[in-house]
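chain below, 122 aa
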Amino acid sequence: QVQLVESGGGLVQIGGSLRLACVASGGVFSIHRTGWYRQRPGAQRELVAEITRADTTIYADSVKGRFTISMNDAKNTVYLQMDALKPDDTAVYYCNADLIDWARATQASTYWGQGTQVTVSS
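prediction:
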């Protein structure tokens, strides 16, 4: 079974940086796109950044110029580099991926990681 596992969250001061990673593992699969979402308490999950196999990227207006999404295809890992962090970046960050798990299907489905907490001190 394919799983996504995030890492890299933690506590950081205003203006600091964190680098999140999400590793896909557990079988033979093909990733079509990956993204990072975040969820503040009492709020809906929102898209932070997204990248496709063609390296097309999109960013939420609130993080443009500060966050960078990238993917290492050989390691099946997507990263989110977060710089110039602000208190309102505090949230649980989730990665997701549209992928084909070849052991179970021939079309893509969406998978989610477990989330990692990012807290920016005021």
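The mean pLDDT is 95. The first strand starts at residue 3 and ends at 7.
thats it, cya
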